Each structure stands twice: as structure tokens, then as C-alpha cells.
Amino acid sequence: MMAAASSGPCPEGQQNHGNFLDAPRLERGVTRFWLIRHALVEENARAMMYGTMDVPLCPDSLVAQQPMYEALAHRLPSDACWFITPLSRTRSTAQAIQNAGYGSRDVTVEPGMLEQELGEWQGLSHGEFPKRLERAPHYFWPLSGEEKPPGGESMIDVCARVGSTLERLAGAYPKQDMVLVSHGGAIRAALAHALKISADTALHFSIQNLSLTILECHDGIWRVVTVNELPGI
């Protein structure tokens, strides 16, 4: 996890300078993405490869992790544009953050930030899933970056989709803060795009539930500000 400054104006004498981020706060007027992985899903869903299935959040976790929602509500810029994916777990997570003190905001559904589509393999148990693979799985992901399930996507496909989405949003919302409640695979794909690394390399990043990853786009050049920051911890 990498620590990062919060968003807002820098006090006099504490400005970021040159190419460095060394002030307590991030400067305004930067095209900045605040990527949040959705909260923990319910127990039955965690027993299978749910991919893009629309599974609900864990109700007990919603209560137990209330301090994390409050920390995110305080951490995020107050004037950000909000985006979720078509799956209810991202909408529910966004709602919980807003209810925890951020305040109600309109959200825009962005399909380009969906999780990896596992096609015919979705819904398989964790024990059954490896039997379907044609390639060795990634050490930190159920399948390699090149593995493409029947009717689904490879992580290489996800990286291309997410990269295109980020470029489009950066062009549509220049110099604005954007909160994107998304998924672990999609956030790894965003890092792959920002760092120009392979899908397999990006899968080495840990992206935990409710973690925050911040990316910036400066005239088409991407910077990673923080990865897998856990709110309130």
C-alpha cells in the first residue's frame, strides 16, 4: 500500500513542486481517478467464480466495516463525478460511502469498468474452476492473463477495455476528480494501462475490498499516486 496526500488546496508554503507530490494535499485541477473496489460480497458468492454475475454484498460486512465507509467519505474529494458499473455491488458500495457522510450524489453507470467476464466458467466453484483451464493459472489470480474462457474475456481483453474507458473519461472530464466504484480485475487493468505493463504483471497488485487506488492523467501521461490504500487503517 502506498500513502498519498488528500485532495484539496495546499496551504501556503506547502505546495507540490516540480514533478513531486510532497505536500499534504493533492492539487486541484488535475484529471484524477479515485478507483474503489466494491465491498465484500455475500458468503455464497465467495464460494464460486462470480465474475460479472450480479451478486449482493455481505450484509454483516456492511455493518462491521462502517468505519471504512466513513473514512472513504472523508477521504474523497467533495466535488467529484461518481461512476459505478452495471452491477449492484458497486451501486450498493457507492450508496454506503455517500450515506456514511459524503452526501448524496448522482452516479453514472460505466460498463467499461466491469470485472472480467468469465463466460461459460462463471458460477463454477473454486475447486471445479482449475479443471477447465488450458494454461497454468497466475499465482495471484485464478487464471493467467492470456487465458480466455469460452464466451468470456482474457485479462488482456480487460486491460484493453479498461484502458480505452479511462482515456475516454479523461477526455470527457478534463481536470476533474472522478470516483469510480469498480472491481479488482478492472482496477488491476487500470494499473496496467497507466504503467504500460502486461496483464500478468498487473495481476501482482493486491486490490482489496474497499481499497482506494488513485491515478492521474497529465496531457495523456499517467501517474500512479496510490495503490490499495485501505481507508481508516
TrEMBL record:
What the entry lists under InterPro entries is as follows: His_Pase_superF_clade-1, His_PPase_superfam, PGM_Phosphatase
Q: What are the start and end residues of every segment in region (Disordered)?
A: 1-22
Gene3D superfamilies (alphabetical): Phosphoglycerate mutase-like (3.40.50.1240)
What SUPFAM superfamilies does the entry give?
Answer: Phosphoglycerate mutase-like
Q: Name one Pfam family in it.
A: His_Phos_1
| Xref: PANTHER family | BROAD-SPECIFICITY PHOSPHATASE YOR283W-RELATED, HISTIDINE PHOSPHATASE FAMILY PROTEIN-RELATED
Return the protein name: Histidine phosphatase family protein
Q: Which organism is it from?
A: Acetobacter conturbans
